[in-house]
Amino acid sequence: MSELLVGDLYRFQDLLNAEEAAVVERVRAWLAAEVTPIANDHWSRAEFPYPLIKGYHDLGIAGREQSNLLSGWLALEMAHADASMATFYGVHSGLAMGSITTCGSPEQQERWLPAMTSFDQIGAFALTEPTGGSDVAAGLRTTARRDGDRWILNGEKRWIGNATFADLIVVWARDLEDNQVKGFVVGKDNPGFRATKIENKIALRIVQNADIVLTDCVVDEADRLQNANTFKDTAKILRQTRSGVAWEAVGVMLAAYEIALAYAKEREQFGRPIAKFQLVQDLLVRMLGNVTGSLGMVVRLAQLQDAGEFKDEHSALAKAYTTTRMREVVGWARELLAGNGIVLDYNIGRFVADAEALYSYEGTREINTMIVGRAVTGQSAFV
User: Fold this and answer.
1) 155-207 pLDDT, tens per residue?
2) Where do the domains of the chain lie, and which CATH numbers do they carry?
3) Least packed by Cβ within 10 Å: which of 35, 88, 197, 302?
4) Coiled coil where (predicted)?
5) Are 206 and 162 in contact (CB under 8 A)?
6) What pTM does this model have?
7) Pairing between strand 123-126 and 168-175?
């Protein structure tokens, strides 16, 4: 069994079987050796470490048959090292590959997934628009018009992770004929496709988010996801990936707690380590409580997924709850480090900033709250 993370007080990792634990240990060692040492520098320069893509290939974790518990724990481990690199992996393997797995025909899966599994081709997922985030289901403005055996796409997308360098971008557009949302796999060299990097971000700076413009972008019918015919099909993918963000939030919390605990043991004031102060211990225990409660929630969520008893409200509640608790934990950790908490040298600053992005993407707290509220009351508060 691999070594437990510092904040795993209730030993949730022991729920992994021996084979799964070995995968976690291998991934954790690679992240510690390759990602953690370069994260602050690349975050500061807002640059993606492209040579690390080969490392993801060598890990062999994308596209493999595995439990949802293991998948979640790997998302946790990646966010524990760096939230940006966890997002890169989640967009590629969860959103992009998940779209093809869920909504593609067997022929499409055979055509695209092997190269994506090996990271020879990188994927992106283009749903959010400049004027449509939370209301994208009803307000999607990107259009698709059938023209013989081709489709013509027009519109704009925003905040699309990986899109500046992705080979395949899953674009969601509204069919002008039936007004239903459909999915298309657009190559980076498709005529009429343009992606431009979003600059001046204060969170997830390593992630290369892009604005996408589609101007009479030509897509073959063979590249339309054959089983994506309404937004309900899109929602199937979001249900899965939303739970992944909940796991990422726990990874960020664990990192923040670990950094704060180590600092408290080393930092001295008034002639003794600040870890001996009651108020510091109170902060640490509040952090650990948030970590433990959130970890218990996502572990149970994975068990429901593996049992086939997984519903929208399960992932929605987990995403809303864990990201809210994450915000508290990173704030308390920054507080404990005082002035040192606002410089990258002490590591916590990157997690504080990145937490803001995790709190918002894959559905805001308010939207996820209404998903759960609808499930428990039987009444929809959506307008």
Assistant:
1) 999 999 999 999 999 999 999 999 999 999 999 999 999 999 999 999 999 99
2) 12-117 (1.10.540.10), 123-229 (2.40.110.10), 232-377 (1.20.140.10)
3) 197
4) none
5) no
6) 0.95
7) parallel
